[in-house]
Recover the amino acids of this structure.
């Protein structure tokens, strides 16, 4: 295996679970930017210096980081943040709620990671707007095969780096159709790609400022903005309002309600304002789920339309 451009390590002071910590950044089991292998977890990323491939493994309580590509140094330095090293979880108070308190005790590994890269979270979030997860993940794979760069270094076969905003703008209409992307999401993705540099954390600022900037772009709403700041900045409070399933998951777990709207969800989460997204993550990890009896949405293949 070729020597890594950067080799480093750090020793977490919490019971780190690498795969579960990074799982919010994985877009399905076939995501070309994310692989779990015998020698560690592999992930690709864009950086201000260029593309990078990172391998993360654990050895005797230490996290070993190897990185390749023009952005290797930037990416390697960002890995502790990816895994939650900067998360202030000690500030969280379950507030005496039995379920939240129990989940908090049983998941000491849970940290809210921050990737520091808005674009890497924004592009797939746009693809996930108003479609099934299966459909969004398929289009993400197709886009990476079409426009993503091969992963630098000795990455597992088939890994790709997310396409740059400039490369996304170069994709033609017939190529988008071949990927299966409909017109509304195509227009939204092109709109954010044309001004993508303004959304990176070093320019956009904190979570509130980034959400405001994102929502100023046609086709980008509060759900997409929330999904981005959760991943790029590790925001502990921003909730994905407008999510098809989330409101019912929260409502059933916290109040036993079978049907909940967004306003009711936010009311139930209000006691944890400032940490509402952390509560959501706890519920997604171990909260009760209401039984599903209704029909599932069938994915739409826009390539046949």
């Amino acid at each position: 295996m070729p020597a890594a451009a950067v080799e480093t390590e750090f020793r977490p002071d919490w019971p780190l679970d690498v795969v579960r910590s990074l799982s919010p950044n994985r877009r399905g089991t076939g995501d070309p930017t994310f692989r779990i292998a015998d020698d560690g977890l592999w992930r690709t990323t864009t950086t201000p210096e260029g593309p990078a491939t990172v391998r993360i493994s654990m050895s005797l309580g230490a996290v070993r980081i190897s990185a390749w590509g023009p952005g290797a140094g930037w990416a390697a330095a960002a890995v502790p943040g990816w895994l939650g090293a900067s998360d202030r979880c000690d500030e969280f108070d379950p507030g005496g709620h039995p379920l939240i308190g129990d989940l908090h005790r049983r998941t000491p590994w849970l940290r809210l990671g921050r990737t520091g890269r808005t674009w890497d979270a924004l592009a797939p979030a746009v693809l996930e707007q108003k479609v099934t997860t299966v459909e969004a993940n398929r289009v993400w794979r197709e886009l990476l095969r079409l426009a993503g760069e091969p992963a630098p270094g000795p990455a597992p076969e088939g890994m790709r780096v997310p396409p740059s905003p400039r490369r996304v703008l170069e994709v033609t209409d017939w190529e988008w159709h071949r990927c299966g992307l409909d017109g509304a999401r195509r227009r939204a993705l092109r709109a954010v790609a044309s001004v993508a540099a303004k959304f990176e954390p070093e320019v956009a600022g904190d979570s509130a400022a980034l959400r405001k900037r994102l929502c100023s772009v046609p086709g980008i709403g509060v759900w997409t903005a929330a999904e981005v700041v959760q991943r790029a900045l590790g925001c502990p409070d921003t909730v994905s309002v407008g999510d098809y399933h989330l409101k019912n998951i929260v409502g059933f777990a916290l109040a036993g309600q079978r049907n909940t709207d967004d306003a009711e969800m936010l009311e139930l989460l209000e006691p944890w304002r400032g940490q509402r997204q952390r509560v959501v993550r706890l519920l997604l990890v171990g909260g009760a789920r209401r039984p599903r009896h209704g029909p599932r949405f069938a994915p739409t293949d826009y390539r046949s339309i």
